[in-house]
Amino acid sequence: MAFFGHPCKRVHANHKSQWLKCLTISAGLAFGMFAHSAPADDATEIAKLKAQLAEKDRIIADLSQRLGNGDTQPVAAPIETVLPETLATAVFPPSAAIPNLSTVTDASPRFSTIFDNLSVFAGIDGSKQPQDFGVNALFGARLHFDWGIPLIKERGLGLHIGSGLNFDDNAVQVFNRIEGTKQRLQSFTTLGVYQRTNFGVNWGIGYDFLYEQYYDQFHLGQWRGMFGYELTRRDEVGTNFMLRSYGSTGNFGKTPVMLNSINMANLFYRHTFNYGASGTVWVGLADGHNAGNAAIGDSGHLAHPFLFGAQVDVPLNEHFALFGQANFITPPSNGTVDAFLGVVYHPISLTDRRRSSNLRPVMATANNPTFAVDLGRKR
Questions:
Q1: How much is the mean pLDDT over the chain?
Q2: Cα–Cα distance between 81 and 1 in angstroms, integer?
Q3: Pick from 252, 192, 190: which is nearest to 221 by CA?
Q4: CB atoms within 10 A of CB 205
């Protein structure tokens, strides 16, 4: 049963690479298949095959010499390599297809690691909240990392660890003139668990810590959670919530104040586009916030104000993406206006990350859009 020789019959001497490839593959495969499959006592067939291989070596040597002398005449086709019928059936069963060796590539699977869902963000940050006492806003830079660590890979269950720093300067001169504060440093830390199931349900719950150096030093905490359901492969709906845990007291100049996170809840819709970018929008309510003002006095407490926001995540190439969030609690005059936007770096390429996409965190590390802070005068 002949397997090799036919493609080489139509090859001429001026096609050097095709000749050498054809002959080398024919000889190598024939010898390899026979050496691994031949019965130990089939000495006659082995001798016959060795003779055929020796003849091929002679033809290759003769071809090389003629090509070196500039001979471009067609060369006689090499002899066919014939395997015994029993060997041919064992090596290539009737249902098996001979592989196309010209298209073989290194397609070995890549093993996932705990770093598949690690990312680092750098960008700009802007914020105005009730904690700014009605007379300040801030703008600066943000750095953070997000890390999703597999706990039970088959179930899509993971551990989320994240931490970020905001370095912001005052965007208004009032604080600097009446109290002396010129900038703010914030440190956010998120620790939680999450799951992306294979039936479309995604959830996560975590705890956020906030430490900030502002007109005083403050430590705050909140619980944060998310529950979503994938209507289609590209569309998801769900809810987010933020619940205060503990607040912190301090002083604005000589005025004692109390800072607390603002409870929030929203309904969201997320769409993922064909090229991998995703956009999320949400609407919801906050439980309330104060309308304090250091310059003209307080104007009371606002209950259940409306809120809305958005998130974007746009891959730029295999390792970089554009990412940002914004959240607004009404009214803008004494509510919140928080946003950040920047570039995310993924050490693992986008192609490889898609193999473990069910283990990416469902929430980002906390920042001002997801950790709004209220201020009240301490009496």
A1: 83
A2: 9
A3: 190
A4: 17
- Write out pLDDT tens, residues 51-63: 878 877 788 877 7
The answer to whether the peptide bond before residue 369 is cis (omega within 30 degrees of 0) is: no
Residue 18 — φ and ψ, nearest 5°?
-65, -40
- How high is the pLDDT of residue 3? 39
Q: Do the Cβ atoms of 147 and 161 come closer than 8 Å? A: yes
| Exposure class string for 132-161: b at 16+ Cβ within 10 A, else e | bbbbbbbebebebebbbebeeeeebbbbbb
Task: For residue 266, give Cα distances in angstroms to 109, 114, 369.
Answer: 41, 31, 12
Give 19: exposed, middle or buried? Use CB within 10 Å, 0-12, 13-18, 19+: buried
In a 3-state reduction of DSSP, which class is residue 107? coil
What distance in Å separates the CA atoms of residue 280 and residue 308, rounded to the nearest whole number? Answer: 11
> Does the structural domain 117-377 have CATH classification 2.40.160.160?
yes
Share of the chain above pLDDT 70, in %: 76
Is-above-0.90 flag for pTM? no
Residue 76 is predicted with a pLDDT of 52
Q: Where are the domains of the chain?
A: 7-103, 117-377
**How far out from the chain centre does Cα 21 lie?**
41
If one counts every other C-beta atom within 10 angstroms of the C-beta of residue 298, the result is 16
Q: What is the pLDDT of residue 354?
A: 79
Q: pLDDT below 70 — which residues of the chain?
A: 1-42, 67-112, 356
